[in-house]
Specification:
The chain is mainly alpha-helical and 569 residues long. It has helices at residues 2-29, 32-40, 44-57, 61-73, 79-92, 95-101, 108-121, 125-154, 168-171, 175-189, 192-204, 210-231, 236-263, 270-278, 287-310, 314-324, 349-380, 383-413, 420-454, 460-486, 489-518, 522-526, 528-556. The longest helix has 35 residues, at 420-454. It folds into two domains: 2-324, no CATH class; 349-556, Methane Monooxygenase Hydroxylase, Chain G, domain 1, CATH 1.20.58. The protein starts with a helix and ends in a 13-residue tail after the last helix. It is globular and about 80 Å long. It is 78% helix and 0% strand.
């Protein structure tokens, strides 16, 4: 039983490493991955190569799946363009399995040491991101070593102990069941790398044979495609992309399983294992390493075949998906998009500026709704509402992109008439709204989910203070929206006065919280980190809306009068 728990612990560490890798990549690259892909995807050949390059830089299958769905959903790329990128990304993602196959678990402590040094003792966001990625890779290597050592100690290759109830000879002959199990596991773990890494770890200890590993590799890849389909199911364009990717992967996987079932006796001997390793320049290495490299070679080769089959057929496959997933009729569409700006001809500069202003106000209304619902979720422990708030940030990102594109097109098409100062005012306020959306999505919603997950509750006094602080910030968000729309100097000055009071109030509430900690109040200790982080993020939101007030005062100041700095600055 101890051995089984140890192996499961290794699996848990492997999954954590893969998840932590995704967070490190997000810290390191942020939204730049999507920007790079959009720039490189203008030509068909570059689309495929950009997919390889981006996935090598960010070898996370979950990251690539989400990036593909969101890019198509936002309308930056068509499903056909994105499919070429995905076919390239499938190949680039195999680099992590290659690293696992190189038997580097002995170097895990060194990688972890470097990761801790960068993540813990540096301040730059980029260096901390690199450190987080190194930590994730170290966790993955360490997990492989744990699973291998536990399997060796259990002597599973001889079918003794707890493993005696499993007939591996019978199991390896059911290739379809193995593939289906691997697909389900990849979906559950949200990572094909984790599934294949588990097979490599057990195979290195001669628990899993090469005959069993091939269906696992094929099934894990299909499971990743199913995950993409689930993520993109709600919108027809991402659903077309996911179905096209799933079709190509399933066809090649089906052919691969047929080959294994019919000719498997010739495929899993040691000569083939060595031959697979030789393709990677490792023909003189020991059989366990050649097994791992053989699995990695199958993983890479499979995705190369999928790309070879899929690239020439992109047009045919996407046309087929358009028939299978038709555009819903107008009355049935629920896709979100801009309400006031359009892709059609611009009907005059004044009208266009008014349209973009209304769209930005629309964004502000969504922001206020997100903040209100996030706070409601906090008070009622409503996990579903908190996740819904986080999803609405995609709407803010979409509108942000569309408004910027609209204003850029206005500057290009009406260069001699439009007001560049008004354009900059709108862009600046737009940036503040997008920042607030990110704060609510990535910080406040996450804190709400953390509070729900821990089952923690604020003290009655702390809850009342937080409610009062939230009310003041929410009022300022509404004042800022009105002040921006009307260019009202009085409202802007009121907003700045409120900012100064809120800054002082935030420090006062922190001191009160520390006093409760010193008094030994249990609830204060349980929720201390959440309490302080909420205060910080609410203050950040208040600072964002106050920036708009400074801009209003500066823009409406008489030309011959000095520009005031504003209260509290």
């Amino acid at each position: 039983m101890t051995t089984l728990l140890t192996i499961f612990g290794g699996v848990a560490l492997l999954v954590f490493g893969v998840r932590y890798l995704r967070k490190g990549l997000d810290r390191l690259f942020g939204k730049r991955l999507g920007t790079w892909m959009q720039r490189l995807a203008t030509r068909p050949g570059w689309s495929f190569l950009s997919g390889i390059a981006v996935s090598v830089l960010a070898p996370s299958s979950t990251t690539m799946s989400l990036l593909a769905v969101h890019t198509v959903r936002a309308g930056h790329l068509t499903p056909g363009q994105m499919l070429r990128i995905v076919l390239g990304a499938n190949i680039g993602l195999t680099i992590m399995v290659m690293l696992i196959a190189l038997n580097l678990q002995d170097f895990a402590p060194i990688v972890l040491l470097a990761g801790v040094a960068l993540f813990q003792f540096t301040r730059g966001n980029r260096s901390r991101g690199i450190g987080q990625v190194l930590l994730a890779i170290g966790f993955i290597f360490l997990a492989i070593g744990i699973m291998k050592d536990a399997a060796v100690r259990a002597d599973v290759s001889k079918g003794t102990g707890m493993w005696g109830i499993i007939n591996f000879d019978i199991l390896q002959s059911h290739v379809l069941l193995l593939a289906l199990f691997a697909a389900a596991m990849a979906m559950a773990l949200q990572s094909s790398t984790a599934t294949i890494g588990l097979a490599i770890g057990l195979g290195a200890a001669e628990v899993v044979t090469f005959r069993m590993a091939i269906p696992v590799v094929l099934g894990a890849n299909v499971g990743l495609a199913l995950t993409t389909l689930i993520v993109g199911w709600r919108h027809h364009e991402p659903r077309r992309l996911a179905l096209a990717n799933l079709l190509l992967k399933s066809v090649v996987a089906g052919l691969g399983l047929a080959v294994v079932a019919l000719f498997g006796v010739y495929l899993w001997t040691h000569p083939f294992s060595y031959a697979a390793a030789a393709l990677l320049g490792a023909q003189v290495w020991t059989p366990p390493v050649s097994f791992a490299l053989g699995v990695a070679a199958v993983h890479t080769g499979y995705n190369i075949v999928v790309a070879a089959v899929g690239l020439p057929a992109v047009g045919v496959v996407t046309s087929l998906m358009e028939r299978i997933v038709p555009v819903p009729p107008p009355h049935a569409r629920k896709t979100f998009g801009p309400k006031y700006i359009t892709e059609g001809p611009i009907g005059g500069v004044a009208l266009a500026m008014g349209q973009s202003l209304r769209e930005i106000t629309h964004m502000s209304e969504i922001i206020r709704g997100m903040l209100h619902d996030a706070w409601t979720a906090l008070k009622t422990n409503n996990e579903r509402l908190a996740r819904d708030v986080a999803e609405r940030d995609d709407q803010i990102d979409l509108l942000d992109t569309e408004v910027k594109r609209f204003l850029t097109r206005l500057a290009r098409e009406e260069a001699g008439e439009y007001d560049p100062e008004e354009q900059m005012r709108q862009l600046r306020y737009l940036a503040e709204l997008e920042t607030i959306g990110d704060i609510i999505d990535k910080n406040i919603s996450e804190l709400v989910l953390k509070k729900i997950r821990l089952g923690a509750e604020f003290s009655s006094e702390g809850a009342q203070e937080m409610e009062d602080f939230y009310t003041k910030v929410a009022e300022n968000v509404e004042i800022a929206e009105t002040a921006y729309a009307t260019r009202d100097r009085d409202l802007a000055q009121q907003l700045l006065r409120h900012k100064e009071r809120i800054d002082h109030y935030q420090h006062e509430l922190r001191d009160r919280h520390f006093a409760r900690l010193n008094a030994g109040l249990a609830e204060a200790h349980e929720t201390s980190a959440i309490h302080l982080d909420l205060l910080t993020h609410l203050q950040r939101i208040n600072s964002c809306v106050s920036h708009g007030a400074y801009a209003i005062l500066q823009d409406t100041e008489p030309k011959d009068a000095p520009v005031t700095s504003g209260a509290g600055e």
